[in-house]
Write a sequence for this structure.
C-alpha cells in the first residue's frame, strides 16, 4: 500500500530544485517531449501520470496536480529494509520487448533493459523512460548537495524506481544506492537487522523504539535533551520489532 511521507524540512529544501525538473518537458533529442503533469484545465492525464496510475492499479482520467511524474512510494511494514526500490510492475498487460520502440529514433540497450516488463500496453514507452530519467536527475541533483539526503530519499521511497533507474540509466549514481542499502524508512519493521544506524535529516519529533518478541524495549530514543536532526541507534541481535516515527529514514552507520 502506498502512503505519502511527511518529508523533513531539510530534505524538502534540497529536493525543491529537483522536483522542478519533473515540471519541465523532457525528451530524447528526437524532438519528442512528454509533459510531466497537465495543467488544471487539461482534459486528461499525461502519459507518465497515466503510467503511474496503471502501475499502481489506480489509473484515472482526470487531471492531477503536483510536480512529480507519478506518486511516490511510502514506507512499508515488513521484515526487511527498503534499501533501493527495484521498481513498479504494471498490474495489467505489458508490451512485449519486441514492441518497445519509440515513435522516432531508437532506444539504447540499457534503455530497453529498463523498459522490459514495465510498459503497459496503453502507454508510450517513451513516457515510461522519461519517468526513469527524471528519477536519475533527482538523485544526481540531490546527491550533488547532500549524498545522505539522496540516500535517505531512496530509502523512504521518494524516488520512484530508483534501483532500476540507477542500474540501467545512471549507473554513475551507484554510490547513492550503496549508501541506502540496508536502511529503514519511518514505519514498523519486523525482525530488523542488527547493527548501528543513523538519521540523515530527522524531524524535531523523531522517536524510535526497538523491542524483543515479548515487547520488552531494547533501545529507544531520543535521549532526554537530545536536539538536532542527527540521531544514532544500535539494533541489538534478536530484536523483533523496530518502530520509527518522524525520523524519515535510517541509514547504516
Amino acid at each position: 500500500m502506498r502512503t505519502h511521507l511527511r518529508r523533513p524540512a531539510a530534505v524538502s529544501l534540497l529536493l525543491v530544485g529537483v522536483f522542478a525538473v519533473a515540471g519541465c518537458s523532457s525528451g530524447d533529442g528526437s524532438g519528442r517531449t512528454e509533459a510531466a503533469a497537465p495543467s488544471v484545465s487539461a482534459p486528461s492525464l499525461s502519459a507518465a501520470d497515466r503510467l503511474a496510475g496503471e502501475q499502481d492499479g489506480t489509473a484515472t482520467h482526470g487531471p492531477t496536480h503536483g510536480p512529480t511524474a507519478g506518486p511516490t512510494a511510502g514506507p512499508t511494514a515488513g521484515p526487511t529494509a527498503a534499501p533501493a526500490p527495484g521498481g513498479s510492475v504494471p498490474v495489467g498487460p505489458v508490451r512485449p520487448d519486441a514492441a518497445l520502440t519509440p515513435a522516432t529514433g531508437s532506444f539504447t540497450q540499457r534503455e530497453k533493459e529498463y523498459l522490459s516488463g514495465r510498459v503497459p500496453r496503453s502507454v508510450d514507452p517513451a513516457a515510461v523512460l522519461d519517468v526513469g530519467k527524471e528519477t536519475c536527475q533527482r538523485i544526481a541533483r540531490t546527491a550533488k548537495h547532500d549524498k545522505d539526503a539522496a540516500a535517505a530519499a531512496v530509502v523512504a521511497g521518494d524516488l520512484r524506481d530508483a534501483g532500476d533507474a540507477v542500474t540501467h540509466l545512471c549507473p554513475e549514481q551507484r554510490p547513492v544506492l550503496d549508501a541506502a542499502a540496508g536502511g529503514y524508512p519511518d514505519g514498523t519493521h519486523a525482525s530488523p537487522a542488527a547493527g548501528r544506524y543513523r538519521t540523515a535529516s530527522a524531524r524535531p519529533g523523531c522517536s524510535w523504539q526497538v523491542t524483543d518478541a515479548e515487547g520488552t524495549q531494547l533501545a529507544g530514543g531520543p535521549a532526554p535533551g537530545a536536539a538536532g536532526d542527527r540521531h544514532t541507534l544500535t539494533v541489538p541481535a534478536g530484536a523483533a520489532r523496530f518502530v520509527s516515527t518522524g525520523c524519515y529514514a535510517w541509514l547504516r552507520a
User: Anything to note?
Assistant: Helices lie at 9-22, 47-56, 109-115, 125-145, 147-156, 162-168, 174-180. DSSP finds seven helices and eight strands in the chain. The first strand starts at residue 26 and ends at 27.
